[in-house]
Amino acid sequence: MITFRAFFKPDQELLLAVAHLPRSILIGGPSSLTRLDNGVHALYVKHPFMCDFDSLPDMISFMNRYWGRLGVMAVPDEQYDILPPEVQEYVLRASEADRRAANEAKQQQKKKK
Fold first, then answer.
1. Which DSSP string do the residues of 43-75 spell out, in sequence order?
2. Which domain holds residue 81?
3. What pTM did the predictor assign?
4. What is the b/e burial string over 22-56, where b = at least 16 CB atoms within 10 angstroms of the residue's CB?
5. Are 20 and 63 in contact (CB under 8 A)?
6. In the β-sheet with 73-76, what is the strand arrangement from edge to edge?
7. Cys-Cys with 40: which of 32, 36, 65, 113 at CB 3.0–4.6 Å?
8. Phi and psi angles of residue 102, each rounded to the nearest 5 degrees, phi first
9. What is the total count of domains within the chain?
10. pLDDT, tens only, 4-63
């Protein structure tokens, strides 16, 4: 199972299409959309059919063809370099925030013990 982060400009028709995507591809549904400062939305997606692809690039190509007509770009979290700079910055900030929250949770658990 590979988790993707998909980025797209907000659009009502697009959000409607996202709402009707198969549950196997969405994590948490459209409510898991995150609005960025610059009007780009981010959404975690997953694709369970890795075994159907010869390679990760084949899978990315499929995902982008599938999502492309919705104006979505899907990339694995590890491949930030192909994202627009403002999105790269968001991903780094989000990753750092996730890391801080995880560390704080660990500290809280230690204090309880």
1. EEEEES-GGG-SSHHHHHHHHHHHHHTTT-EEE
2. 2-112
3. 0.31
4. eeebbeeebeebeebeeebbbbebebeeeeebeee
5. no
6. 34-35, 41-47, 2-8, 73-76
7. 36
8. -65, -45
9. 1
10. 444 444 444 444 344 444 433 333 334 444 444 444 444 444 444 333 445 555 655 665
Q: What is the mean predicted confidence (pLDDT) over 83-104? A: 62
The total number of residues shown for the chain amounts to 113
Euclidean distance between CA atoms 69 and 62, whole angstroms: 12
By CB neighbour count within 10 A (0-12 exposed, 13-18 middle, 19+ buried), where does 17 fall?
A: middle
Q: Which two tokens stand for residue 94?
A: 């989000």
Q: What contacts 43, CB < 8 A, 6 or more positions away?
A: 5, 6, 7, 8, 18, 26, 30, 32, 33, 34
